[in-house]
Design brief:
Elements lengths: L2 H4 L7 E4 L15 H6 L1 H7 L3 E4 L3 E2 L11 E5 L6 H13 L3 E6 L3 E3 L3 H6 L13 E2 L19 E4 L4 E4 L6 E3 L5 H17 L3 E4 L29 H16 L2 E5 L5 H7 L9 E3 L21 H15 L6 E2 L9 H4 L7 H13 L4 E5 L20 H13 L4 H11 L36 H6 L4 H14 L2 H4 L1 E4 L7 E7 L3 E8 L5 E4 L2 H4 L3 E6 L12 E4 L4 E7 L2
Parallel strand pairs: 1-2, 1-15, 2-5, 5-11, 11-12, 12-13, 14-15
Antiparallel strand pairs: 3-4, 6-10, 7-9, 8-9, 16-17, 17-18, 18-22, 19-21, 20-22
Helix pairs in contact: 6-7, 8-9, 11-15, 12-13
The protein binds 1-O-alpha-D-glucopyranosyl-D-fructose.
1-O-alpha-D-glucopyranosyl-D-fructose binds next to loops.
């Protein structure tokens, strides 16, 4: 058996749960672990293999759990350790694995390590964080926080600054300190010992900072800490000590990374991580790299990025495939058409991703084609990044209220964090209390109950995609060629192995279009194995394929 056949996760699909917005079992307006347990049968019906839970640990929730104050305790908003143990047990009984989110680039400033370190140079935890003296009574470098503003905050008592690449309540850990690395190993071992099957590692390619801490006159500082000098060494150390001991599956979140680095992070020898998330394909609606703009997406660029990564990772590493997560707007609003062709475009987008090589991730609600909520007031937002950026765009950049709200409606992370729409009852069946974030108004039409009743729903289409990955080997093993890289409307690629050829044809727009199959395929005997319009699957593969709005088709050829 070769490496690709050996690992369960290479034919798996993983479902991401953002617990705060998933299902509330206790009328608090916030989802919880018992709520998740109550929906495990639903996830089993979808056919997923594993669940990734975003952070469930003790946290002041400044960044919804990505600011951890105790790695060994469950956040009481979500339940208690007994609830978690039960979730793990029942998920395992039902044949689904559990992946936890580990946030160790930084801790909350409410963590006892930081509380002891702040204001006290003699604390045994002082060196767990990154402290620098002021330069000319200013922050030591001009680096920018990812959430806006300078990335250093002053500890007035000691007159030193600490680094925070994210919010000022998220202090970066000093990975140069071996004690920090030992703490990380202990944390991960604790959860692996309980039977947790894997880990998603938050912004893990930012843990090793270049040690000379210089100003960045070309950018925001990221080139001095992204894929930093010792990051591979650190990952190998942790994998050796923990992940590989427990056989954990690992997925690293890689911020602003490169193909070459990702080949190494996820190399097939298993020395570092199982697979990696990169975000290049989701920057296609940024303007010159700037997220906070209202910009249409660049279709040719999207295809070219996929081509670069699909070809580059093949035989070298492994990609996590995804459109949506808790930081990204809903894909059907972003690249599809969430009004006239919501169902068709949600299915087409799913197809164009799920037929690639890698491990697909489905973010809660994506499987029913949930949309951005279309908020129209800043009062509706809860995300600290959105609120910070609102202030910066309004008050520092002088943009109009209308423009800023339009940008947030396109780019805010809250777009994907709205409560899951379970049914057409009050608050979409998410809670009997007051939801922490307003439910999208289309819930009477777009909800799980409705989707389960309709055999043509987005849900059953995802179910089919998830099953297909296990049935058709070339999806996992085949090489990748873009057959129409310059086409302004079609995304059409080929996957090929010794045994099979698969063609995935996607119309990304509302206008119909024709596509002539490559001549050598037109004469071969293939069959349609999937399409997003009802009633079209036929063995008779015509040379000229006519695609309706947002139509997609998947063709499979078995080699003789
Ligand atoms: O996100 C890392 C990250 O850099 C982005 O996804 C970020 O949220 C976005 O670029 C802002 O525009 C991870 C988590 O997924 C995110 O929720 C956390 O806020 C962040 O790390 C800090 O822990």
């Amino acid at each position: 058996m070769n490496q690709i056949q050996k690992d369960w996760w290479r034919t798996a699909t993983i479902y991401q749960i953002y617990p705060k917005s998933f299902c509330d079992s206790a009328d608090k307006g916030i989802g919880d672990i018992k709520g998740i347990i109550s929906k495990l049968d639903y996830l089993k019906t979808l056919g997923i293999d594993a669940i990734w839970l975003t952070p469930i640990y003790q946290s002041p929730m400044i960044d919804n759990g990505y600011d951890i104050s105790d790695y060994y305790t469950i956040n009481p908003d979500f339940g208690c350790m007994a609830d978690f143990d039960l979730l793990l047990e029942i998920a395992h009984q039902k044949g689904m694995r559990i992946i936890l989110d580990i946030v160790v680039n930084h801790t909350s400033t409410a963590h006892q390590w930081f509380k002891s370190a702040l204001g006290n140079k003699d604390s045994e935890y002082r060196d767990y964080y990154i402290w620098k003296d002021p330069i000319n009574a200013q922050a030591p470098t001009n680096w920018q926080s990812k959430f806006g503003g300078n990335a250093w905050a002053l500890d007035e008592k000691t007159n030193q600054y600490y680094l925070h690449l994210f919010a000022k309540e998220q202090a970066d850990l000093n990975w140069e300190n071996p004690k920090v690395r030992d703490e990380v190993k202990d944390i991960i071992s604790f959860w692996a010992e309980k039977g947790v099957d894997g880990f998603r590692l938050d912004v893990i390619n930012l843990i090793s900072k270049q040690q000379d801490y210089q100003n960045d006159y070309q950018g925001d500082g990221r080139r001095f800490y992204t894929d930093g000098p010792r990051v591979h060494e650190y990952l190998q150390e942790i994998s050796d000590a923990v992940f590989n001991q427990y056989g954990s599956v690992t997925v690293g979140e890689m911020s602003s990374t490169s193909l070459e680095e990702c080949q190494q992070y996820s190399s097939l020898d298993g020395k570092e991580l199982s697979m990696v998330f990169n975000f290049h394909h989701l920057k296609i609606d940024y303007q010159n790299g700037e997220k906070w703009t209202e910009t249409p997406f660049d279709f040719l660029q999207l295809k070219s990025i996929f081509n670069h990564w699909q070809q580059g990772m093949s035989g070298k590493g492994w990609s996590a495939l995804f459109w949506c997560n808790h930081d990204q707007p809903r894909i059907v609003t972003r690249l599809g058409n969430d009004q006239e062709y919501r169902v068709e475009s949600a299915k087409m987008l799913a197809t164009s991703l799920h037929m690639m090589q890698g491990t697909p991730y489905v973010y809660q609600g994506e499987e029913i084609g949930m949309t951005n909520p279309g908020y129209t007031s800043i009062e509706q937002y809860r995300d600290l990044e959105s609120i910070n950026m609102y202030d910066i765009m309004r008050h520092q950049q002088g943009k109009s209220e209308q423009d800023v709200l339009a940008i947030l409606a396109q780019k805010s992370r809250d777009n994907s964090r709205t409560p899951i729409q379970w049914n057409s009852e009050k608050h979409a069946g998410f809670t009997n209390g007051t939801p922490w974030l307003q439910v999208a108004e289309n819930y009477p039409d777009v909800n799980v109950e409705q989707a389960l009743k309709d055999e043509n729903s987005v849900f059953y289409y995802y179910q089919r995609l998830i099953a297909l990955r296990k049935e058709v080997a070339v999806i996992t093993t085949g090489d990748y060629t873009d057959l129409a890289p310059e086409h302004a409307q079609l995304f059409c690629y080929r996957r090929r192995s010794d045994q099979q050829t698969l063609i995935c044809i996607n119309n990304y727009y509302a206008e119909s279009v024709e596509y002539a199959l490559p001549a050598e395929l037109a004469v071969a005997k293939g069959k349609y194995i999937l399409g997003n319009y009802p009633g079209l699957l036929t063995d008779d593969v015509a040379c000229l394929v006519k695609l309706r709005p947002y139509e997609c088709r998947v063709l499979l050829f078995e080699h003789q």
